[in-house]
């Protein structure tokens, strides 16, 4: 039996709290001690026999160089608001409404070559000779009266965004940190040299923990406290841009990108929206650049006998672990901060030797949502256990090698229940990890494919943490799937064209009309609709959630309405009689009406459609058989243990699958994983109450009573 | 003083109930006795000294001729459902799902020339050589597997729809009546002769009441009782079509219409949806044909010394009273059945000498909604009084000359409260009419323009009665406006191009994305947005309700969002920070939060937007000043006296108008109309309770207590 008390745990050490650091390292079974953003380790810690991770944010902490070489700083396109011309001239102040501590106009001739002044009313470009720039303002002459105009312009980003966040949230008062763009040759020269020097100067470091690479996710602050965040997207590429990048792109692709490719009518191109073809090209271009530069850095780190782990958040744009270039970088480990199960699967599935989860809450006074954690009124042990309920079921499905924490260790003083909770989780994590080492958990013979425009580039996640995307049904679906005994893949519309459905039993499409998750204009392609029609008629299963296969502006709104048996009326059915139906008010499997939400305008369009639940005249959940296949429509999906059970039992019903093949329980508040090699069941109580459950596995069945949140390991 | 007890009242007489007929004629002050669909008058009635109306449905009651000349019957295009090809041939039964008592396939070579077989998956036409028709089925060869196909075909309509409705609803068992198409020369010859003969044979008739002309509104029945009505639209033109009409159209317009111009992707073209250019051409073509034929009939009637009144419902398609051809027909009167105020204004504003309202409830056992009226459990007096609350305020604004009833008079026996109520209404109607004759009621100096795609062709109405369109905010707005002291016009987008806003103080746009009332693609025209931007900046007022100026598929959803200060997020704002706001929870005028409903995704986009009400984070009502003008956004609008008062006071606030100029009350459950020539106030209690109110008019103010539903006429 392995040592369940020690190993696979990364502890954030803190200078000045050496005793606490070593005490907790022992209690939590740490084998690694790390520093954190804003903390340093002392010799007493680094020489205590633990492996040492050191955090390096490569593009930050170079203010001296940045101030001496301002042309090496990072940039972005911004657009002014659209301003109405009340006469034939119009003056537009460019940074009006933007946070001027973050942005500085780049009015160099090279940058201004990319500026665009646009008549937004008729969509035409204002010719260069009609506008002039001076002192932060563009003056337009020859305006069409009562048209609206905007200026798209480049600016320098003069405050690194994570530093800006920490200043704002944790009341830091230190110097604002700037960030360098590795695309600038001088910066790149400097950064390589700096890393060489750093490695030389830090012999005690075993692992360089890169946080992360070069380009932060997009986070645009406004000047008005009533709307501090103007735009925030964890996976957008706006902050990678510069005249140099645009020139290199044009040289390679043979066409030039414009400001409008980024500004996109003033709305930018968020990850939640289907990308333009230009954006897809640009993303690939940046991914290759990031991988190439990252590889060079990793080689420096390796040359110094250290390992390179990368943190999968913050400045991670361009290093998608599921993009084709990631595996060539040579990272030794991937670290992901996790609130949820889907984030565990996101990390665990990446092609890299070590997967490490950074648990929440971070050892900070307040959490990401702004509520107290390690401060008065906080219950960090409660938060940690809530997140563990999500993490546990995901890592029971797919293993990770390590877990850990981040932040200021001294903040745990006065929260002894937290330190106890972390100790328990460490032990459970190591036991689950050991089971995986002995053999994989049993899976059902059901292949689930989630279809959206990003496909395998963005498996499991949408953009950001659960609570940032929880209005999207798909993140709830992903969270539910993350702990299920199913083979889950994420496919794009091109994957469907390439025959991905040949290897699929259940196809899921969950999103809102026009978004990246539903698919937007992809649904106008006849070959997609044809292939899915074939798939279902020949025996495949389809689950549509929210506004699946929705085509905006079409009268027949859902492209797959003929398979789902429902369509959405956004006005086009005003004169069409509705099919009368009787809602069954239960399903042929466990159902959870509360999980379904409600989507406006759903209507039955096939008399054979079975309606399980409805809100007045609007169906909430339906079933329909077509040919040899089956389809289900759900008006929405909100994750809960009971909702996840509904989804799992729906999938089993659609595919005629016996759940007990992978171990199952009869109480939705509990879940089981069956490890056939070690003949061990992991039975998990997800609820905060004591729960009775009957566990069934191939060859057996047993009644159990589980304590609140308990994990039972039962070898049979 | 006029005789308030007699005149302007049309009574439905009934043979066999002569005594009752004459008794009620006296009680209700009738000057006219009419027959009804399904009733006859006896000599005792027709010779009692009253003017006599006789109902003539010109295209119906000619079954003998129709059966002898089946090619003279009316037609329509239908489309099959879309059927999936599971192999390379596919057989589609054409009338599957349709009510075969209503339709019969027209497979004459002339008709089949217009049939279309379509691959609905890729939108291509199936060439004629690939399909064959036999015995009600089309066989398609060379299908693309898993594509969906449909057949659009012509069929005869073999059961006149109002007769079909009466059979279904009132359990009639008589022979199914057929209908003739006046476009067929033999039918037209026959109908003229028939009317000549009828006029000869009915010397007692003073007024021929045409019910209505030739083409019924579209009413397509299904075979399944679970969806009896497949499609129903009170203003669509599908039932006017025939090969002859299509040929005449092509000869005149130089291009051919196809089945798809009518079938429109299987959804038909409902009045609630913006019409295609082809549909607009076709409507004009039919309107001219209907007017020409109607004129010929009116001339026959006039030649026999009779008058011709036309009923503005049922077979009225093509005779829109606000189309340019109506006034040339020469009708002597227009009769409109009314539940609501907007219907009164619709009738009262038409260019014709006599406007007559047919009150509801109809003297039938059940009402249009299917609930009992003159039968057990019915309260016809209550229904009549409810409708009167709507009618009274509208006819106080614009006069009509006559009122009346329809149906079986004997059904009133046992409902004495009904006969009393009708007597009271008759007296009040005559008093209001007399005031109008003495001089117009005072109006506020405010010109309101309601903007939608139909403009002045469809003022006041949408399509059908209030209860059939009550999901649309605009019908509630129209109902509210119908009793207000304002100058109201209905304008189209072309009217805006032609400068209609020069003569407008308040512009209203109320609808849902993509519908005819919001405007759909009309909002993509820069000149429309520019003109409205000018209008507001120069001092005009804008009211947007629901999804005003919505452009489907656009990220910036409301084309007028810069004037409204709000936009709608259908997903495109997922990464955009929201403006914090504090809802004021009241307005600078009377407000009614309940009337506002809720529109999904509304968000503030201007920090100066005042939010009066919000549901959680979603604004329900906002105000914004732009330039010299003001705009208001309402998430929805549901008519009630209090809601109407909110709208009136909002208009007054937007335009700085003193309501008392036209007479006003301080209790929203009451309304006043001020007739300056006769110095008379009409004060109306709309509620079923006793109400206190203070009436203010130019030069005076008075407290009053009104009985439930009371009308007070006060000369000051």
Give structural notes.
The structure is a homodimer of 716-residue chains. Chain A is an alpha/beta fold and 716 residues long. Among the domains of chain A are: 1-52 and 359-438, no CATH class; 64-157, Immunoglobulin-like; 447-655, Class I glutamine amidotransferase (GATase) domain (Rossmann fold); 660-715, Sandwich (Immunoglobulin-like). In chain A, strands 1-2-3-13-16-17-18-19 form an eight-stranded parallel beta barrel, surrounded by four helices. A seven-stranded mixed beta sheet of chain A has the order 21-20-22-23-28-27-26. In chain A, strands 4, 5, 7, 8, 9 and 12 form a six-stranded antiparallel beta sheet that branches. In chain A, a hairpin with a 2-residue loop joins β27 and β28. In chain A, α6 runs parallel beside α9 (277-303) and α14 crosses α18. The longest helix of chain A has 27 residues, at 277-303. The first copy, chain A, is globular. The two termini of chain A are 16 Å apart. Chains A and B meet through β15 and α16 of A and β15 and α15 of B.
Which fold name corresponds to the CATH topology of the domain at 447-655 in chain A?
A: Rossmann fold
Secondary-structure content class of chain A: alpha/beta
Number of helices of chain A: 18
Backbone CA Rg of chain A: 27 Å
Low-confidence sequence ranges of chain A: none
Span between termini of chain A? 16 Å
Placed side by side, the strands forming the largest sheet of chain A appear as: 1-2-3-13-16-17-18-19
Q: What is the subunit arrangement here?
A: homodimer
**Most extensive interface between two protein chains, with residue counts:** A-B, 69 and 69 residues
CATH architecture of the domain at 447-655 in chain A: 3-Layer(aba) Sandwich
Percent of residues in helices of chain A: 25-40%
How many DSSP-defined strands of chain A?
34
Q: State the CATH class of the domain at 447-655 in chain A.
A: Alpha Beta
CATH homologous superfamily annotation of the domain at 447-655 in chain A: Class I glutamine amidotransferase (GATase) domain
Main beta-sheet annotation of chain A: 8 strands, parallel, barrel
Shape label of chain A: globular
> What fraction of residues of chain A sit in β-strands?
15-25%
